[in-house]
Amino acid sequence: MAKSARQAQIEQAALYPLDWVEERSGLVGYTKWMLFRNVPRDVNWMQTLGSATLTAFIVQAVTGVFLAMYYKPDPNSAYQSIQHITNDVTLGWLVRGMHKWGASLFIILMFLHMARTFLFGAYKYPRELNWIIGVLLLVMGMAEGFTGYLLPWDQTAYWATVVGININATAPIAGPFIAQFLQGGAQIGPDTLAKFYSFHMLVIPGGIMALIGLHMYLVVRLGVTSPPWSKVAAGRPRDVAPPDGYGEYREGLIREHEQEGKDS
Amino acid sequence: MSDEPEETPEAPGHSLWPVGFSIGIACILVGLVISWPAVVIGAVLTIVFGVLWIRDTARTHAPVHSAPAHELMGDTPSPGLAAAEEQHLETYGRAGFLTLATIGLGGVIGAAVVLPSLGFAVLPSFTGAGIETNEVDLGPLENFPEGAWVITSFIGNKAQGNVSKRTAYVRNNGLSATKEPSFTIIYSRCVHLGCPVAPNGPKFEEQAVTYKDVTLTPVQPAGFGCPCHGGAYDTEGNRTAGPPVRSLDRYAFSIVDGNLVLGKHFSVGTVEGTGAEARIQRYPVAYPGVHVDGISKWLYPLPVPGA
User: Fold this and answer.
1) Which helix (H) or strand (E) holds B166?
2) Which fold has domain B136-299?
3) Are B284 and B267 in contact (CB under 8 A)?
4) Domain boundaries in chain B?
5) Residues of B near A (CB-CB distance < 8 A)?
6) Tens of pLDDT along A218-254?
7) CATH for A46-223?
8) Which of A162, A172, A189 is the closest to B299 by Cβ?
9) Chain A contact residues (CB < 8 Å to B)
10) What is the ipTM of this complex?
11) pLDDT in tens, B128-180
């Protein structure tokens, strides 16, 4: 259907900024390449758990940044500042609630995502590295939970952290050193809270973001796995024969050698 | 393609001098924090290994296959020169030098930034103000009747305030066989994972007295119990049930101007006997859950500075 001149004009006006960006950065094409990629036709809802985990993390990051505007990591005012956020600051109860309950949700989703990956065999070749990165992300997520638990600075927080630090102390050889580093001295003191706060909002989230970047890069590069009952499940022989006729292709790589030659 | 490194004459041999050089740099940086002699040693190491490294590098990068004079004079080019021309090999790799220089300089700058920062993040936990222990005055001896237990809660470190609030259970044992005053002073933290143990017995809150910021509450414990994981102890602090790995920690004490003063906090293996006649196996203070005696103590061979 032929477009009217007016339609074409509007379209051009709308696309102009995108073209401008694309010409100078290539970012539009790259974003399209990343978002509009092939997935197996028999993917299912289980495979949205990873995106759900990512969403939960983003919620934690955003609400955490806003909570940091009102929270004071000092033993004399931490508890009061949390009470202030919850009771006085407009919508503070909501944002703190999102962060508190979202924390549990993030951990639960990480485990569900991990279970899906395990049960679908999606950790197998060539995705082993992504499994390893995922395990690191799980550890860092748990560390977020541990460091964040102290911040309300109430009795539960204090004694749970005492127990957590002393569990670290029981590790052979290095344990007492780890515990002493975590609490910043021979006992839990004024520095402990600030240290946990720094880890909770700067060190660990930075690491998590970097690892999520790698995780996503590998997902985009290697593609989404088919479920194990699929005809194209990972590891099964492919119909396509390799060009040199030696060996065989296995399912599991969405972007494969067919891409070669197209680009250049 | 073979994986074996090709033995081209231009490839510099693996040299150990850079290792010594970097040890020297590390020595300087550590020395800046610790002591000046270490800086001098580091500087000497750096210069010596640096010179050796440069000499080594200069030798391996020197023009190779310097042909005998008669070949240079003659018409036929030397085999070495011919090979070099054929492969366009550089005798002095500019790109290689720049790469190495960038990596090396970047490493030095990175180390200069990262090492002190890491030290700042880690070392104060083992050397800083957080590890000081102060003596605490618990008040006149009249508040500790002979044979009775008193719960004392006090601020361990005035500078830190409420976060250093501690509790100790004190019993006046009267005079020992050698006519010296004796107190059993048990620190309240469970030696399983550090929760506060409670005295199992009636507390007499209405008889509580205060001395400065110390609260003294009479109590009649049959033992001590931990609410977290069920650790139980007798009145000497010996484990009677549950997961703890040693006896409850204690405080040393002194008597100054008729006041009971808490001294060093120490850990205890086991206690034999009771009261003034108790024989206490004393150890440097250890983290809860850490074995101080028996075969398991070898799991924790290194003393933690400042603990």
Assistant:
1) strand B165-175
2) Rieske Iron-sulfur Protein (2.102.10)
3) yes
4) 17-122, 136-299
5) 122, 124-126, 128-131, 133, 156-157, 160-164, 193-196, 228, 285-290, 299-302, 304, 306-307
6) 999 888 888 888 876 666 677 777 777 666 676 655 4
7) 1.20.810.10
8) A172
9) 75-76, 159, 162-163, 165-167, 169-170, 172-173, 175-177, 179-181, 183-191
10) 0.76
11) 665 556 789 999 999 999 999 999 999 988 888 888 899 999 999 998 888 89
